[in-house]
Amino acid sequence: MKSRTAVVLVPIFMILAFSVSARVKAFHTGPPRLAIASLEHSFGSVKPGTPLTYTFKIKNEGQGDLEIKSVSPSCGCTTSNFDKVVAPGKEGGITLAVEKTEAYKGEVVKTATVVTNDPDKQSFVLTLRATFASE
């Protein structure tokens, strides 16, 4: 009878111990904190047809995982690629790219709205700039 009770009680105690441990960890973990050097990048003067690609470096200076929930470019000509989760103390990136620029002339500005789980930077806009000039 004792062994049957032990077989039932030991797994219950283990489940409770893991559950309490997870709750304590979640309680002591603070929010993420996104740090980014600049929200804008300028390519300067470029020739038409030059693809534009830039990776904005981000760092999580908080205590919880930083989640990049979405990156929404303002037009279909701009693509994005990004790290979905950045652990505390780690760096990640958000890459914006405009591949087909043959028809562009003059100053061009492309933006993308970023949504995160950082309570202080829940949403912000990244900007790419370039001036297309023929030689």
Distance between the termini: 91 Å
Write the element-wise H/E pattern from the N-terminal end onward: HEEEEEEEEE
**Portion in beta strands:** over 45%
Q: Helicity range of the residues?
A: 10-25%
Largest sheet: 5 strands, mixed
What's the total number of strands?
9
Coarse shape: elongated
Question: Which residues sit in consecutive blocks of at least 5 with pLDDT less than 50?
Answer: none
Descriptive overview:
The protein is an alpha+beta fold and 135 residues long. The protein contains 1 helix and 9 strands, in the order H-E-E-E-E-E-E-E-E-E. The protein has one helix at residues 2-28; strands at 34-36, 40-46, 52-60, 66-73, 78-82, 85-86, 91-98, 106-116, 123-132. The strands form 2 sheets. Strands 2-9-8-4-6 form a 5-stranded mixed β-sheet, with no helix packed on it. The protein has a 4-stranded antiparallel β-sheet with strand order 1-3-7-5, with no helix packed on it. Strand 8 (106-116) and strand 9 (123-132) form a beta hairpin. The longest helix is centred in the N-terminal third of the chain and has 27 residues, at 2-28. The model has no long low-confidence stretch (mean pLDDT 88).
Quick structural gist:
20% of the residues lie in helices and 47% in strands. It has 135 residues and is of the alpha+beta class.
Provide the descriptors you would attach to this structure in a database record.
single chain, 135 residues, alpha+beta, 47% strand
